[in-house]
Design a protein that fits this description.
Elements lengths: L3 H14 L13 H6 L33 H8 L10 E3 L8 E4 L4 E10 L6 H18 L3 E11 L7 H17 L2 E9 L4 E11 L14 E4 L5 H9 L5 H12 L3 H9 L4 E4 L4 H13 L1 E6 L9 H6 L6 H9 L3 E3 L5 H6 L9 E5 L1 H13 L6 E9 L4 E4 L31 H18 L6 H17 L6 H15 L2 H13 L4 H15 L1 H12 L1
Parallel strand pairs: 4-5, 9-13, 10-13
Antiparallel strand pairs: 1-2, 2-3, 3-6, 4-6, 7-11, 7-12, 8-11, 9-12
Helix pairs in contact: 4-5, 6-7, 9-11, 14-15, 14-17, 16-17, 16-18, 18-19
Length: 536
């Protein structure tokens, strides 16, 4: 029921100011009011959508890949005033997983906060991942988490209301499993879903495990497989299989509680959890803080199922490049390692495992205990080689190879259009179809706002959907576009598609090969057209 008087009162204020009072960037009346007869400033709300939702399709970057990169953080934080308090045992300058505050009786508080976007599609599972990831920083220090408050960003009325309930329910259940009491929370209306927790724990001051005490001769143990960032990206673009998705979810929702207790029991020297900064980022930070150089063996790193196949298909998310920019100058890979293998080591992890440095004499006992407790992926991945400047050497035995790209079709599909925030084609696809739709409009004398213009808009949307990568990747579809432009002898189309092909990195030989595919179907007229176009 619309409260007409309230609406008039509120809209009168907005119109007089020249700005919508609930969003100063909008005029009054706004487009929502014009299209849906809803004034949100007057407290009117659209009906919330219903039905299932795929969370990773609603965000730009999934999971810990949404975090600010390490290099930028260090640059921005370097001039902040130092905290001069002797009770702060581990603080911001340490760059560790959590802060530690001495309570003066042999006990210290361990505190952390972690918030990120969905790394899985299921809301309940995302809540579990958010909780497991948040308490992991406490476990990485050897502490025991005791309380938490939730932090949530949620696009109100843009996804089903019960999505928020499911996220929080998953978080509560996982915190209960960890023995942590949730005692409050905070939420904001945000355009992207985000969730996490601020967690407080306790630790004995003589049992603190930092990332700065690795010693030469120590063995490096990783307790969870790598690849959550790659799997999440593959799922976002509809290229992940169900086995990978399920394995990644199981890994991300698993607590690091038992691994933490065991590393303390066996006297680990140093530890960090592997999350958004990647294995390379966290290991390089441990090495630098400890004043040592380390080496890892690529072939011994545990990986999630399907990850090697995704890498072979070029499915490497952008967070890899940001992490490489942050710490790549301290990574020394073997000359025999292909670049894509090195890139995998920079994959941003969500709720990853503990990376533990422990004396060689104690490593076998810790490994046996981890496996007995069901942490089957735990593996020795390297060693601390000597005192040094924080270099990470990546070596290989040659046992593990990147497979040839597989023609097997993905088992996941892109989200249906109704679950997208806007039914707009991808930017690249929009550019590629622009030449065709604009040519049609120009030739037909179509004016904006006409019924024909609406047909044109729908046609353009269809072209964008057809050109967007789904089962076929963008590179393959670009080659097809070149071939079809030649076959149909569309000069503006070919001009646009050749430009896009070169921007995607096509060589001239690849362009010619695609063009001759079109010629093979269209015959001599297409050959003459293409040769004349090339020489013009």
């Amino acid at each position: 029921m619309i409260n007409v008087e309230r609406r008039k009162r509120v809209m009168k204020r907005s119109i007089r100011l020249g700005h919508c009072i609930c969003d100063h960037r909008l005029p009054c009346p706004c487009d929502v009011f014009k299209e849906k007869n809803i004034c949100s400033c007057a407290g009117e709300r659209p009906e919330a959508p219903t039905g299932p939702v795929q969370l990773t399709k609603l965000v730009e970057k999934a999971g810990c890949a949404s975090k600010i990169d390490q290099a930028f953080l260090k640059q921005v934080l370097k001039d902040l005033p130092a905290v001069d308090d002797p009770r702060v045992l581990v603080g911001v300058p340490a760059g560790d997983d959590a802060g530690v505050y001495d309570m003066g009786d042999g006990t210290a508080l361990v505190q952390t906060v972690d918030v990120f976007t969905p790394s899985v599609d299921d809301p309940y599972a995302f809540g579990q991942v958010a909780a497991a990831n948040s308490v992991s920083d406490i476990y990485a220090m050897g502490g025991a988490p005791i309380t938490a408050v939730s932090v949530l960003g949620f696009p109100v009325r843009k996804v089903p209301d019960d999505t928020m309930n499911k996220i929080l329910s998953g978080g509560i259940d996982k915190m209960n499993e960890a023995g942590v009491a949730i005692i409050g929370g905070h939420s904001i209306n945000d355009s992207e879903i985000k969730a996490g927790f601020a967690v407080t724990g306790t630790i004995k001051t003589d049992k603190i495990v930092t990332n700065a005490a690795a010693r030469p001769g120590d063995v490096l143990i990783l307790t969870k497989p790598l690849g959550t960032g790659i799997v999440a990206f593959a799922a976002q673009i509809g290229r992940a299989n169900s086995d990978s998705i399920e394995a990644a979810a199981a890994s991300m929702t698993a607590l690091n509680k038992k691994a933490s207790q065991l590393m303390v029991k066996f006297g680990a020297h140093a530890c960090t959890d592997v999350t958004g900064f990647s294995l390379m980022g966290h290991l390089a930070e441990m090495a630098l803080s400890s004043g040592v150089d380390v080496e890892i063996t690529w072939d011994d790193i545990p990986l999630l199922p399907g990850v090697l196949e995704y890498v072979a298909a070029g499915i490497l998310p952008g967070a890899i490049e940001r992490n490489k920019e942050s710490c790549g100058d301290r990574i020394v890979p073997s000359d025999t390692l292909p670049q894509e293998i090195v890139d995998m080591c920079y994959d941003a992890q969500t709720s990853g495992g503990l990376l533990i440095a422990i004396a060689e004499n104690d490593a076998a006992s810790l490994m046996k205990a981890l496996h007995i407790e069901g942490i089957s992926a735990a593996a020795i991945v390297g060693r601390v080689s000597a005192k040094g400047s924080g270099l990470v050497h990546i070596k290989t035995t040659g046992r593990r190879k990147i497979p040839a790209p597989s023609p097997k079709k993905p088992t996941t599909k892109p989200a249906p259009a109704k679950q997208q925030s806007q039914p707009v084609p991808a930017e690249a696809a929009s550019e590629e179809v622009a030449c065709c739709s604009d040519a049609v409009s120009s030739a037909a004398g179509i004016s904006e706002g006409s019924e024909i213009a609406q047909i044109k808009a729908r046609f353009t949307s269809f072209l964008g959907a057809a050109s967007s990568p789904h089962g076929l990747d963008a590179y393959t579809k670009q080659a097809m576009a070149v071939a079809l432009s030649v076959a149909t002898r569309c000069e503006p189309c070919l001009e646009m598609h050749l430009k896009n092909a070169k921007e995607k990195g096509f060589t001239q030989d690849e362009i010619d090969e695609a063009a001759w595919m079109g010629i093979s179907f269209a015959g001599s007229p297409a050959m003459v057209f293409y040769e004349q176009f090339k020489n013009s």
